[in-house]
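tool_log.txt
---
The assistant was asked to compare two proteins side by side. It first ran the structure predictor on the initial sequence, then on the second. Raw inputs and outputs are pasted verbatim so the downstream comparison step can read them without reformatting.
(1)
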Amino acid sequence: MHTNAQRKVEECKNLFLTFKENDKCKEKQKQWHLKFSENPAELSGFKYEAGNLIMGPTSSGAPNQFDIEKSAKELDRKIQAKMYTQPAMNQWGIFYGDRDGQIANQFKSTMKQCLDQVNYESEEPMMCPVKPGMKADAWIRELRDKLNDGVQMVVLILPGAKGKNSLYDDVKRFLLTEYPIPSQVVLAQTIQRGKNLRSIISKVLIQMNAKLGGIPWAVDNLPFMDKPTMICGLDVFHATNLGKKSVLALSASMNNSATTYWSTSVVQDDVGQEGSNNLCRGMTNACEAFKRTNGSYP
């Protein structure tokens, strides 16, 4: 992962040398009428500098930024610092299965260490056990009972292994449709293992901050950003359970560091014309949102 291009080329050349010299490989190539060139094709290219990653200021107020490429091997460690922006987390909760109280406390204490490390303004979370912990309706009942409009974020420590039960889908659907509050799911099994726990929970905190509207980091000297510029991304999701329908998702940047976004999603009844209509409408709305934020169109 952290090697240079020349070394990768040499590794590939060694592989093709093996193809050339190994008897079994030679036999297969003969059967399949394959022939490999020993040297890869060469072409000219231009390499842009990756730039600096900008975090939040240090405790002394000095800016904290570092070269992305030079720091590649220690990027994980360097991003465990105060983030670019961190909205205060004054009201949040940790929900966990009734058998996972010890795991929940372990998560809470490790999260406290991560919050302190990045100087994140936050209050103590409310701790909410769910009984029985394997029933989705029990989770939904507990969430309904404990949540109010002031709650900013919930962490769900779900029992079981990934993809082994429907708890994730049911609880996430409730929090996305009926009670839209940002949520972060962590598997109890992940915490129980205890392996690289501090690093894992540090990354969980980065996700929570982003979901709260914070900005984990920015990149300096982005091209084209000296004038009002909007970066857009779109994708189409085809779900078999929706029949012929598909979902168009569109996101568009709203600031000059491309760190805050407006987004929308549309369930399309059919392909073709319908898709282009939805994209036109989505782009129009994105441009209007950009104008409301910046005072002009991109």
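(2)
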Amino acid sequence: MKLPRRQFLHLAAGAAALSALPHIARAQAYPTRPVRIIVPVASGGLADSLARLMGQWLQDRLGQPFVIENRPGAGNTVGIEAVVKAPPDGHTLLLVGISATTGAALYDKLNFNVICDIAPVAAISREPLVMLVNPSLSAETVPEFIAYAKANPDKINIASSGGIGTITHVAAELFKMMAGVKLIHVPYRGTAQVMTDLLGGQVQVTFASVPSSIGHIRADKLRALAVATARRLEVLPDIPTVGDFLPGYEASYWAGIGASKSTPADIVEKLNKEINAGLADPKIKTWFADRAVSTMLPGSPSDFGQLIADETKKWAKVIRAANIKGE
């Protein structure tokens, strides 16, 4: 018997609604147990604090514990691989940072591909970098520094913190490439030692996070030549950008949340919605502002995925051009 068209359409719509019910119910029920947020760096730094801040927000909103688990090692690849191998049910998340995008170029053999194996959930923050020099250096602007460096090739030490391939390292390499200067890279394990040696004159220049250096800048112990962001910063309004002198230059540490591949889209969307709500919360905005860190504009999972893809492509070019190899 042939059904009338109107009756057929009603039945089809009803069937579609019924098929969507399991997905709706799954998203409503999530999370059903404690959620782990894997942080691929040691505890105590900004990334760890950021994960704990957002974990507490999600815990309060979703009613299950969000437990921070620090899994440092091998250029952050240990923590990333733990999430790649986790069941794709949204109960294991990853704090994704720039190191996730540099790993593919730094290491010849990885058991994962971040773009393919990590589902982007939401971008959270961007931590600006600033180009600093010891005040004994005669250069007071980026053009003066470039001119001085070209007149003194391989005589200026540029420090980076956190090891080979970190944002402060690749930011320095990108500057060297775009400015056409030869600087000696001196890697450090931590920011504190970089600051000590920059203040003492053992190294002459570095790219450092604003939170770690703004006190020295305001006390005139270190000279800020430029910020590495695309626009000037509210906390350092008189400092130009590197891009003002090297158009297109930008380097900053960013972070967001990812999940294992094939995590259901409805769960990803629920997490995305809650994280974006957190970024609009006045208390969280104040937390970021107090640390000179910018919150990302609310965006979709695909927006964050595009950022990851763009950063992977950008830094791979720098790493290969500079012949950087992972430790």
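---
observation on (2): The chain has two domains: 33-127+252-321, 128-244. The chain is about 45% helix and 20% strand.
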